[in-house]
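Weekly modeling sync, notes
Attendees: S.R. (lead), two postdocs, one rotation student

Agenda item 3: backlog of single-chain predictions. S.R. asked that every request posted to the team notebook include the full sequence so nobody has to chase files. The rotation student volunteered to paste the first one in as an example of the format we agreed on. Action items at the bottom.

Example entry:
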Amino acid sequence: MAELWDIYNENREKTGETIERGGKRTLKDGEFHLVVHVWIKNSEGKYLISQRSASRPTFPLEWECVGGSVTAGEDSLTGALRETLEEVGITLDPEKGSVVFTKIRRVIGGKPFRDILDVWLFEYDGDADLTKATTPDEVSDVRWMSKDEIKALYNEGKFVRNLVYFFSDIAN
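Predicted structure, as returned to the notebook:
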């Protein structure tokens, strides 16, 4: 089944239109879709990061936070909770999360991107269970890591580069 996204304008207002992910129609100038990044932190100050599976078309086997596109009819929180369950098998408490920042991304790496990114931070003490992930082909491994351990992965080129904001905006 095709994944549909709501189309938003620059003011984060839904236009009433949807677009099919990977479909023929592309987002035009001034149109955006909503994306979430979900950082999960435990009481020891460690962050849950996941390793992308080898079959992923972009950044295979690199480490990252949970994230993805918000589907049509969802709000940002609902999308963040769904993506977390899909990717790492965790049901987060919505009361233990908040948006750290939001930004419009028009271009990434010289290519049109056209999304509105909400970055979430959730508190969670527990384990990830990839056997409970509803899309088990996306993630190959999960680990709790400190900021320094994540920085080492980044310096080794094993952490998704566009998540560099983690060091200044999440784990500061």
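Discussion: group reviewed the output briefly. The mean pLDDT is 95.
Action items: rotation student to repeat for the remaining queue; S.R. to check formatting next week.
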